[in-house]
Amino acid sequence: MSKSDWKDNTAKELLDKVAPILCDEELDLEAEELRMIVTDLRTENAQLREDNKALTDDMADYDFIVEQVAKVYDHITNGQLSKPNYLAEVVIAHYDDCITADFKERIKEETEELAGEINTLKADKRELVEALGKMNRAYVRLLEDGYERIMYAGGNCDPVDIMEASSPDLRQAKAAVAKHKEKV
Predict the structure, then answer these.
(1) Residues 6+ apart with CB under 8 A from 30
(2) Residue 143 placed within a domain
(3) Is residue 75 part of a domain?
(4) Distance of alpha carbon 59 from its chain centroid, rounded?
(5) Residue-wise pLDDT tens digits, 73-104
(6) Hey, which of 21, 70, 132, 181 would disulfide with 84, CB 3.0 to 4.6 Å?
(7) Are the beta carbons of 109 and 150 closer than 8 angstroms?
(8) What is the CA radius of gyration of the chain?
(9) HSE toward the beta carbon, residue 53, CA cutoff 13 A
(10) Is 67 part of any domain?
(11) Please, are residues 139 and 163 in contact by the beta-carbon 8 Å criterion?
């Protein structure tokens, strides 16, 4: 027998017991009042069931959120804060501290790496400036040797300083060596 059948039977039994005592008119009023009470109880019972289901659903949602928050806290704090009841400010401050420390470590590593690269580039630059200076002197010696051969053979030739000044490539190379030799 279902609960609603039991309630209906109980109400009928009650009416059957009370009916002989009451007159017909009173019986009709009492029966109507009992029907209204039974209807109100059924409505209230249905509402309580709905409220209970909503509350159960809300609790399941809350349990899910608490579980997920704990996992997020655990992850972003590298396992140091894993309880869901930490204040958000505590977790955020810890996370910011971790990020700052990580950022500082990365900056330090990048700075050391860049310093190494800069030192390598400076050394390469010194070598290149030195090599370019040697190339300039070798070019001038070639000009001097050519001048001497032409003059020895009885020819006519511009002096070496004029030939140096009239060569745009040599002027550019000498200017680059002068500019960078000061900085090296």
Answers:
(1) 15, 18, 22
(2) no
(3) yes
(4) 31
(5) 888 888 888 787 888 888 888 888 888 888 89
(6) 70
(7) no
(8) 51
(9) 6
(10) yes
(11) no
